[in-house]
Amino acid sequence: MAIGLENGTLKVVDCCTGETLFEDSGAHSDSVSSIAFSADGRRLATGGRDRTIRVWDTETWATIGLPVEGHSDWVTSVAFSRNGQQLASASDDGTVRFVGRYTRKLCWKLFKWYIAEREGCVVG
What we know:
- By secondary structure, this protein is mainly beta.
- It has one domain (2-116): Methylamine Dehydrogenase, Chain H (7 Propeller).
- It has one helix and ten strands.
């Protein structure tokens, strides 16, 4: 189980034993606000109040590449696509961003006004 703390720490704990498997007190420079595992369990994404997203290798717990940046306010949610090729993030800046997992380049972006104007629109 992955736990994000208000001080920016990422902690991974074995649910059965309670043993801490990994801890990084510098995962984010502000609160960890969102955590998501990839479908295959090989990657973990964290989003933070520092407006960044980090991707972790769950075997080594090393970060993969540089932090993903682009939001102008804190990251409220992160999620991998089913095939793991894209990473979605939502922010309090009113946008949902989709970046390529390997390229880290922006694929597309939705704005809250776009979603709000479409009745019954759900992004999931």
